[in-house]
Fold this protein.
Amino acid sequence: MNNLVGGIIPQQPPIEPVSDAHVLKSRLEWGEPAFTILDVRDRQTYNDGHILGAMPMPIDELAERAVPSLDKSRDIYVYGGNDEESAQAAQVLRSAGFDHVSQLKGGLGAWKAIGGPTEGIVESRTPAGADDYNVVSRLKNHAENQQKEV
């Protein structure tokens, strides 16, 4: 079967072992396929608020849930309650044979600091920001965020 988009869509570079929130937000905003975001905090904390689209996989169940449900060659961004928990989760996944795992530096706090979309019980009670529904403002903010050093 011929690859109709071969050469048109550039190959995504390999993900870094540690990524900042800007990298992940950029991939989401531009609709890049084939990556997964894992939240390894406990289920109640996840339910309170998490990155939009993140899958819950508590760290104590991570290997046994990830192995049967995720492709080992898939890009995976992982975050926990703090950077140490995120690093531990990334190591658990690498030890289980996942090749493309990146720890999200700063976790949910860093994500929210750059205006990344969230969902959850607590998050649903937070009113939308002034530019949340304005595409022009969102694109402008995205361009400004790409210039920032984290």
User: Anything to note?
Assistant: The chain is about 40% helix and 15% strand. The chain has a mean pLDDT of 84. Strands lie at 18-19, 35-39, 50-51, 55-56, 75-79, 100-104, 118-119. The first helix runs from residue 21 to 29.
